[in-house]
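This is your field. Please look over both lines of this record.
***
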Amino acid sequence: MSAETSPADGAPAAGAIAEDAMIEVRDLTHYYGPNPAVENVNFTVRRGEILGFLGPNGAGKTTTMRILTGFMPPTRGSVTLDGFDVVEKSLEVRKRVGYLPESVPLHTEMTVTNYLKYMGTLRRMNGRRIRRRIDDVIDVCRLGDYHKTLIGKLSKGFRQRVGIAQAILHEPEVLVLDEPTIGIDPIQVVETRGLIQELGREQTVVLSSHILPEVSMICERVLIIHEGHIVAADTPNNLAQHLRGVEQLEVEIGGPPAEVLPVLRGIDGATEVTHHPRPGINAYRVKYREGLDLRDEISRTVISRDWSLLSMQVNSMSLEEIFLRLTTAETDEDDLA
C-alpha cells in the first residue's frame, strides 16, 4: 500500500478532482521553523463521509486540521473545501466549516445560551436565525438542562458538548473535530460518539484522534498519519485485508484435541493450526491462504466425525494491530506494497 492515497483508497490520483469531493488536499506541507509537521500530504474527503484522521501525538493531525479550517496557511500545497481555496477564499471556507479544536476556547463566565448568541453574532447570523439555531443545537447536543448554566460550572464532557454546539450553530457543511473525546469520562465518550454519528448523517465530518476504538467505531474510512506522512488510507476492513496476508478462523470444537488437531492440519489450504484450550472449551486458530474460505470444509469435516462444532468466526486484524504495523520502525516496506 502506497503512502499516497490512490483511487483504490477512495481518493483520486494527484491532480484529479473527484466529482463528489468536499475537501481536496494536494501536496500539503507545513514547516515549523526547519522542521516539517506535515509533508506532501494528499487526500480527499467525499460529501457526507465521516473520515477518521488517526495518528500518534505529534504526527501532524492538529496542523492539518488547522489548515483545513483556515486557521493557518500551509507552507506549500493546496486545500480546497467545497471548491474554495482555504487561503484565497478563507471567509467562504469558514462559512462552510464548523471547527472543534482540541482545546475549546469557551468563555467560562457566560451561560451556555449567551455564549451561543455571542458566537452566532460573530458569524453574522441574524437574530431570528440565532434564536432558532440555539434551540436546535441545545436539543441536538442535549444541553437543555444546562442552557442557563455558567460554562465554568460545567463538567469537561458538557463543555465538549457546548464546543460541538458552537461548531454546528451556523449549519456548516463540514465539521472538523480535533480529539473530541479527550479528557472526558467513559460514559460521556459513548454519548459524544453517538452525537458525532448523528451529525454525520447530515454533514461531512473529519475526526482527528489518537484513540483507536474511536475511529473504528465512528468512521467509514481511515487515514493513518505518521511523522507528517499519510501511510495508509482505506476502510478499517480493507486495511486489514491488505496487511494480513492470510485469513484466520477461530473454531471451537467438541472432540479430542489429539484427533482434532491433525485433521484440521490436513485440510487443504490450511497453513497453520494451533490449539488454544480454555476452561471447558477446546478452541483452535486456523490460518489459511488469502482468498480461500475454509468454513464449509471445516464444518463438513467436524460433522463427519461426530464432533460438535460449537462456534466458528473469522478473525480480522484490529485497527490497533494495523496502526502498530504501519507506525513502528520495524514495519517492512513489503508489507505496505
User: Anything to note?
Assistant: The chain has a mean pLDDT of 85. The CA atoms of residues 52 and 187 lie 21 Å apart. Residues 127-140 form the longest helix (14 residues). The two ends are 4 Å apart (CA to CA).
